[in-house]
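Support request, please re-run this one:
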Amino acid sequence: MSKSKALKAGLERDALLGEVFSASPDAVVVIDTHHQIVLASPAVTTLFGYEIEELLGQSIDLLVPDNRKELHAGHLRRFFEAPHPREMGVGLDLTGRRRDGVELPIDVSLTPVNQDGALYVAAFVRDATERRRASNRLTAVNDITKRLLAGAQMQEILSLVAQSARLLCNSDAAWIVMPTTAKFEIVSVDGIGTEVLLGVFLSGDTSRSAEVMRSGQPDVIEDLATADNVPLGSPNLT
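Re-run finished. Output below.
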């Protein structure tokens, strides 16, 4: 192959790799041996909220919660000592930090890249919120099933279901209603201050619980203090 053809092929390859890099649904961050960001894909902006220009030259610690920086630095140090493609922190719940300070669960895969004798690490980062929620949901279902098979009392099962629903939704309060004549009775609750809801009757026609029953669709109340058609006397939770 002539030099001109080789150069053209190289440029085409680089252009293709650039397109693949930009189109990756995972956020891709490339760091050097000093843990500084030298390259970032457009998906990084979607996941973390930073513009690419804001990240270049910054430490990867910018995307790590303060209470995880030391642990994260240890992971990277060991990876640079023995680089090979792998998931980072297998078995750990990894967390990233967005530009607005909000923390989010993430999955990370690391790949070493050698370029002109210099070692870099490409991190492929994905939002793990839904994966972990699905895993937690399966764990909760298995736990409830085991309790049922073990002959647990119904009130114990209802309490576990209410607790699991609250935790899965990351909510302050959850309650379970049981249909009675034209009304729904709150028979189980979970969350600080929710004891006042036990035994409260809700409308079988106009309450939000009734609407959930009819529609089969979940309903998460943002603020009990200002929401319509929620139990009277409910605690002031947000």
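Residues 3-23 form the longest helix (21 residues). The chain has a mean pLDDT of 82.
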